[in-house]
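Our consortium's second objective concerns turning raw sequence data into structural hypotheses that experimental partners can test. To show how far this objective has progressed, the report includes one record in full. It was chosen at random from the queue rather than selected for favorable results. The single chain below, 285 residues long, was entered without modification.
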Amino acid sequence: MLKLICWVVVIIGFAIAGLLALRALDLRADAMAQRTLLAMQPKTPQGFSADLVAGLPDVAQRYFLHSIAPGAPLLTVARIDMDGDFSLGTTANDPYLAMNATQVLAAPHGFVWSAALRSDEMRLAGSDAYLEGKSWTRFWLSGTVPVARDGGNSDHARAAFGRFVAEAVFWTPAALLPGPDILWEATGDNAARVTLSRGDLQQSVDLIIDENGAVTKVSFDRWSDANPEKTYRLQRFGGHLSEYRTFQGFNLPTRIEAGNLFGTADYFPFFRAHVSAIDFPSARP
């Protein structure tokens, strides 16, 4: 019996050591991806001028003229600190968890969202990420038990690509200035659509602006399995933006709520964030 107990203790010890090692590898992968994305910041960015967007539809010009101050360096990589609420459910009856997160966003290359979620009974921490075609979701309970591990396939990558293209609209507008892989079109007096292409992936995002040019709503058809069938398909996703502040010459929203099935009776804003800081760090030589 003593020998059996010893073997059980050894096995448990190896299992715990393996989980801790896996957690360390996850953290290392997140940190490496963040460094890779931060290094994509333009080293000698030009300053913004209205001439750069003069050929765009009027609504798109108004968006850029509101989002970027004249002369502001056209930095495309941002680090965003946020807190707020996050729900793992799909309806208003599902509880929210308190959220603290940091995101590195570098369209069209990718993003890393590192988050800690908590309630009185539970602690979750992990990341969502995409880097040049590869994506992952990795979350841990109390830092020791893996409870969500997804990615490594084209469906997950397509869904992640849609997410960060939409977020670039309101957090890194310089990344969406006119270029060979970016198409802007007017869809109304105060509505526009931007389409970003990267390799085999393409994502269109619709935005509504107010009279000043500030984006108040974003929505897009996202490749998602957030449905009862858990089947990947195109579903409307979107949210509301407000409380604009200026960061290094960029006028950006700091209050965001978003969720699946935007614009329908089943819309539920599972993500409600308040941004405390946005930084556009200089690229290292």
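The partners drew two points from this record. The domain at 2-279 is CATH 2.50.20 (outer membrane lipoprotein receptor (LolB), chain A). The chain has one domain: 2-279. Both points have been shared with the crystallography group to help prioritize constructs.
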